[in-house]
Amino acid sequence: MKEERLRVASIGLGWWSDVLADAMVRSGKFEIVACFTRSTEKRQAFARKYGCTPAPGYEAILEDRSIAAVINTTPNNVHLDTTVAAAQAGKHVFLDKPIANSVADARALTAACRRAGVVLALGYQRRKESHFRWVRSRIDAGAFGRLVNAEANISRDRLGQFDPGSWRYTAEGMPGGVMLQIGIHYTDVLEYLMGPIVAVSGRLAQLVLPGDNPDVASLILEHDNGALSTLNASYASASEYYLMNIYGKEASAYYDLHQGLRFLQRSAGRAEAVACENNDTLVEELEEFAAATRGQGRPEMDGEAATRSLAVLRAGIVSARERRRVSVAEMMA
């Protein structure tokens, strides 16, 4: 018997809503029924593109019992209100990262979904990339021995794409700037590969982009197994670039955007290339969410995990502001 498509509504129709909608189309396991954003023009354009109904208001989506889930890409500062409303209406929620701008809001919306018995999943697609899955499998197999260190870089050129009116580039809408916007992807991958982060030392700078928010960030991350990691994130680079190097006592893995993944075992002499497929991480995380709404498994990144991920970034923001080492536990207190 063919599985019914999950009927969803998309809210907060910025560019990322289209990225997720395109992934749902590729999947074939979703039916985009309705959409809403405050801009009539954006609402109608999204509806035309994806063949759905432009809802006159969010309330219309909440009242439509045929809609099972909400794909929420609204600004961070309304994640709490929009998610709680969906949960109270009995609708599952796929929420783009970060879960919120504050740990208090993250906890509140997670609790609301738990009370309502609806699934809450967070969009952390980077950890699903096949090269990171391969590294994790070798870590689990013991090939790295003791993990000791890691270094990461996630950089983009935003100078020509800067929109001064976008909440993504303001201190109020995206506290911590580039650190919270894209750095959080690689703090998550570092936790996924190296283990939980217990403390952060951070620095922020505003060097190229206008406005009031940092466009460069550097973090030193302390893991509970004693390993140390570094992360650099930038919106002020000349081009897009990603790097993730993992160092263990017995082996190391080197990944970057241009050369892919390489693996070096102790005494091997040189790193060998590792062939990894280009998997569709967005489809994978959305289909994982859809399966969870049917009681088939749980989201890899749920509200609790995403709240802890946010706490790591909040520790980095406080560290940069107060020029001190900050524990993640302090942010979770």
Would you give an account of this structure?
- The protein is of the alpha/beta class.
- It folds into 2 domains: 6-125 and 283-300, Rossmann fold (3-Layer(aba) Sandwich); 127-279 and 310-332, Dihydrodipicolinate Reductase, domain 2, CATH 3.30.360.10.
- It contains 10 helices and 15 strands.
- The strands form 2 sheets. The protein has a 9-stranded mixed beta sheet with strand order 14-13-12-11-7-10-9-8-15. A 6-stranded parallel beta sheet has the order 3-2-1-4-5-6, sandwiched between helices.
- Helix 5 links the parallel strand 5 and strand 6 (120-123).
- The longest helix has 20 residues, at 303-322.
- The chain is globular.
- The mean pLDDT is 96.
Calculate the mean pLDDT score and round it: 96
CATH architecture of the largest domain: 2-Layer Sandwich
Number of helices: 10
Give the oligomer, counting copies of the same chain as homo and different chains as hetero.
single chain
* Fraction of residues in helix: 25-40%
What is the ordering of alpha helices and beta strands? EHEHEHEHEHEHEHEEEEEEEHHEH
User: What would CATH call the homologous superfamily of the largest domain?
Assistant: Dihydrodipicolinate Reductase, domain 2
- Sheet with the most strands? 9 strands, mixed
Count up the domains: 2
Query: Structural class of the helix and strand makeup?
Result: alpha/beta
Form type: globular
Rg over alpha carbons? 20 Å
Low-confidence stretches are: none
